[in-house]
User: What shape does this take?
Amino acid sequence: MPTALASDLKIDSAMTLNQVGVGCDVTIRILNGPGCDRLRDLGFCEQLQVRKLAGGRNLICSVCGTRMAISRELAEQVLVAPLD
Assistant: This one.
């Protein structure tokens, strides 16, 4: 699974949250999958800025000043793009 820095991406490209490097700031473009309704209920939604803080079995992200851990399977359903 390739890891990329947000600055290496083209503005119209998208990748999953799993593929983003630790420390990168990205914008959520699309949530698509069975667990995404629950993410939206928690405030993790489209057009939101996210920073990936840690990878591993679970990913830790900073969202609106709050740290949130999500599974790698769920992060695979979150498409992100570099900040505009």
